[in-house]
């Protein structure tokens, strides 16, 4: 796909685009699609030979397609799927089965799709926890219901006296106060406490707690005992699969299917994508963005520039410092985007046999974990702090091909292992070497082998990714998977930095639409959609076509 | 299934009576209840309901959640936990009760059985182990889920005593409502029998060890052959329970710990359980909140029985005052074969449970051959139970 366009493209340099979007990740493509549908002439430039950013599927072993970065689907806003007609462009979402955390004593705790089965499973480990689970789920669901309406709204600037900001602040205040004082207090506790403390209020069994803590540390440079991790859990639960809130699924064909469908929708709306087009610099003249310069020196002129790169890459990497106010740059430097995750993508010539699982257990089709206490999880984090990868790593591992037949030939499988903790740089600030990377990969493979003897013999190919590889390929600064950490200090009107939460950069007609912006990371699409809404709002009436852009579906 | 890990192979458990129920469930009408597979009907709901009201019916209540509460402080604990006075309960007594959280919102209702000075059993619809355990801090009691250790069969209907007598328990003639006794039933051995039920008719509930369940079933069926005994499913029982005006957790009210929407929680006074609140018995969970709500008149809802015009059941309908103002919601409704009335349970906004006069209207969408008939039927608040025959209480009970 080179210079793909629905219409003939005049020579790139002779033309001024209505908008150039930097990066063909899912958010860049969402923003680009809305703008193209509104009648704008939109060009997306992507540095890689392929599109997708962190929502990408590549065939790295013959016949086996990987979800190279993100691997499970839930957060993507259904309103966007509908606006951009993604199912018609090939997006299909498959719910997936259950899962298990393996215990060192040879046992396991499973989670099943069936509520009663999960209750009985928990009861094997703690009758009390089995019955606490309903109230726990209820409380998490209450928090989800609170946050979901906020995802597709531009955060207000609390320091502004503009009518729109004040009324949005008033909306937030009303939304919060509607909780009532007791629930409001609980909510603030939840947003700021550690997942370990939170789970202690419901559960007693370590393995159960470890299972439930999984989503609270994913992509986060924090341990389960760090304050703020409870919110991260919510960030992973606020999505849904067809209304089943908190449920996760797969994009059929791998996560790249999401960006493939987006690209198809974008092209159908008349948009243009250029791969192999790395932006070296965003050009600014007289306080106004006017295009980009590619690494090979080619200039592309545009009435607005929309960056889907993370804010550090955008402002520290692709701009002349003299074009950007110094205090803003300082805030961008302070934006936390420490990487904490690695990933192994594995091609297998058969299904590994986990000795703990009884024959026929559906858990093999779900998410698998090898960390059975919160303490082990926290210890794994301790190693990250001193610049080591965890010797006893935490994994979120699954075999999507047991659910999705399209990603590997029959009998072969794709196994996705998301791993923590994995620091962006090693002890003493040392850069990763190939040897380090392979040693990290080995720690992960060894752990799986411990629970599934013979596993390694089935391995056909492994792609090992540390923050170094993630940064090099996707451009994620320090390999932070969410384009910036999801801690309370960096959310809502403070994301990415205070005063700039409305998708506008510090320069006219320079916009931000990546996961660095509200509501943050994950394959969600909301940042891209919200950015497009802001851009269109600022345009003169009559200059754009009306296109579908739904508000968030009501939570009733 | 001895290896507990294999439970996932059979997501719905089977009651100890399952082999008999399966054989009689000729339409394969199954529904899940509390993790068990249970019969919706045995082929003919009208005949089954008729058995409840005219002869004798058996209904499997084994899935009911049961907690054994035992220890020297059991009475003090239960008095602290529940709304009614437990100290005054006789050994062999049974109490219909409910319990609340600190906000005075009902967590569940259930029946409390007293076996001796220190041993009780609490039967309810939903699971509450964490709440019961947390509430036990400072009390010398143990609390254990015994759901799977006790099989229960409800024998209801005017000839239910005749059946028990034929089964060899003539001594139950003296058993009063809300009392229980242990009897030996021929081939079954010891059976605990309580004069309780969900039908507002003469009836008993029989409790045995699961190993004895099939013997109990068979013995009752043989003993009841001349007394019109038949198994009934949840659909027939539900008609009878609405006629009796009984409420069901998470159907007529939402248990406070399950309420996703905080405004769905209800105080006892809001679901018709005001009569069981004993404010004078000493401290109990929710007392201050209940007292304050009564004093400050902050109660919002009331649960009432409705008698609706016509004969079209009003399941799920919205209740209006006059033509437009929404004042409530029907939670259970049925055309009552016994009273020949169109009855319902409803949550109404106060004060309309009292002050609506003849202004209540029930909006019914009746689907008939692919078209809705929209009806606005007048309704009146009436006393529950809708059906309350003297035979329910007569001791000794009549033979029919
Ligand atoms: C290993 C991993 C696992 C994850 N797992 C999940 C998951 O299971 N589920 C989930 O919902 N989320 C997951 N996430 C998070 C999620 O994938 C990301 O938050 C999301 O995909 C980011 O999308 P984006 O469009 O905001 O940015 P990106 O995907 O980062 O897109 C930015 C794009 O810009 C391009 N680019 C960068 N620099 C330049 C340049 N100079 N010139 C031109 N183009 C440039 C990049 O190549 C990229 O295509 C995961 C992320 C990672 C890394």
Quaternary = heterodimer
The topology string of helices and strands of chain B comes to HEEHEEHEEEHEEHEEEHEHHEEEEHEE
- Rough shape of chain B? globular
The proportion of residues in beta strands of chain A is 15-25%
Strand order of the largest sheet of chain B: 10-11-12-9-3-13
Bound molecules: flavin-adenine dinucleotide
Structural class of chain A: alpha/beta
**CA-to-CA gap between the ends of chain B?**
43 Å
Mean pLDDT figure of chain A: 95
Greatest interface = A-B, 28 and 23 residues
In the sheet with the most strands of chain A, the strands line up as 1-13-4-3-17-23
Assign the CATH architecture of the largest domain in chain B: 2-Layer Sandwich
Characterize the largest beta sheet of chain B: strand count, sense, and whether it forms a barrel: 6 strands, mixed
Q: From the alpha carbons, calculate the radius of gyration of chain B and give it in angstroms.
A: 21 Å
The main pleated sheet of chain A reads as: 6 strands, mixed
Question: What share of residues of chain A is helical?
Answer: 25-40%
Please report the number of helical segments of chain B: 9
Any idea of the CATH class of the largest domain in chain B?
Alpha Beta
